[in-house]
Amino acid sequence: MGMKKRIKVTAATVLILCIAAVALPAFAQEGSAIEKMGKKLGRGIVNVVTGWVELPKNIYDTSVETNNPLMGITYGTLKGVGMTVVRTGAGAYDVVTFLFPVPQNYQPVLKPEFVFEEK
Fold first, then answer.
1. Is the C-alpha dihedral spanning 24, 26, 29, 31 positive or negative?
2. In the chain, N or C: fewer CB atoms in 10 Å?
3. Cα 87 to Cα 111: distance, rounded to the nearest angstrom
């Protein structure tokens, strides 16, 4: 398969998953298992796509918390790389297991639920 075709297939797959994540809750009763599955799938997709944001976020947060840019560049980078792997992995886990109520009742594996939320 050529590179252009592979990119088109990947883009189409991501688009279909995003539409499903938005559409499933619309057809479900509030609080139903289908709505929770849709939320879990959506959360997983968002975390897979935005997991890399953990790197610059942790560099910045560490610099501000310690009032030391060197700590941000060193420790913040290490923490960011680790959290990138953790957030992307948690997102992939949610995408793969969105049909099942694990953890209990479709709860998020990681807190905060999304990279942009406060702790």
1. positive
2. C
3. 10
Question: Residue 89 and residue 47: Cα distance in Å, rounded?
Answer: 8
Domain boundaries, given as residue ranges, for the chain? 3-106
- Cβ proximity of 60 and 71 under 8 Å: no
- For 15-48, b/e burial (b = at least 16 CB within 10 A) is eebeeebeebbeebeeeeeebbbbbbbbbbbbbb
User: Nearest-CA neighbor of 44 among 118, 117, 105, 113?
Assistant: 113
Looking at residue 25, what is its pLDDT? 54
Apex 11 CA angle, 108 and 57, nearest 5: 45
Q: What is the DSSP letter of 112?
A: S
